[in-house]
Amino acid sequence: MAGRRNRGSSESGFTLIEVLIVFAIIAILTAILIPAMGFATDRSKQMATMSDMRNLAGAIMQYSIDNSGYPNDSLTAQQLAALLSDYAGDGLQYQDRWFHDFGYESDGNNAYTIQSFGRDGLDGANIDFDTRYDFNLDIVFDTTQFTHSPEPYE
């Protein structure tokens, strides 16, 4: 009886092959999800930037009602936001969601343009519905509406 071994029990655990297969599956899922997360992040930044541009445009319109004209286009985006803070509060953004200052131009009387230079921050080609997923392209708001945006025109 002393030399008797229990043949019915076996050691439980994972083999090296099983562990490697699990790691391979996790690596494949990660490789798929990381680019998708980057795309979703840029898309949300694009939509938030457009919302900030609409808010800035609303403040410019309020300013024009009180002052019979649009703010001077020699202002930087930060100066423009400070000037308009009385019309929209202190939450007015002067940068897009990629942390680049908005571009602003105005003739002082009849028209103005607000522009986001996209993820790369460089002035270049303008975005349209067909190129809506190229986040380096510029979004443009002219006086009353977006003329170049990732949304379809109405």
Give an overview of the whole structure.
This protein starts with 15 loop residues before the first helix and ends in a 6-residue tail after the last strand. It is of the alpha+beta class and 154 residues long. The radius of gyration is 27 Å and the shape is elongated. A hairpin with a 2-residue loop joins strand 3 and strand 4 (145-148). The protein has a 4-stranded antiparallel beta sheet, covered by helices on one side. It has helices spanning 16-67, 77-83, 85-88; strands spanning 103-106, 112-116, 139-142, 145-148. It is built from 3 helices and 4 strands.
CATH class label = Alpha Beta
Rg, alpha carbons: 27 Å
Count, helices: 3
What is the total tally of β strands? 4
Quick summary of this structure?
The chain is α+β, with helices and mostly antiparallel strands and 154 residues long.
What would the keywords be for this entry?
alpha+beta; 11% strand; 3 helices; Glycoprotein, Type 4 Pilin; 154 residues
Describe the SSE topology.
Elements: H1 16-67, H2 77-83, H3 85-88, E1 103-106, E2 112-116, E3 139-142, E4 145-148
Antiparallel strand pairs: 1-2, 2-3, 3-4
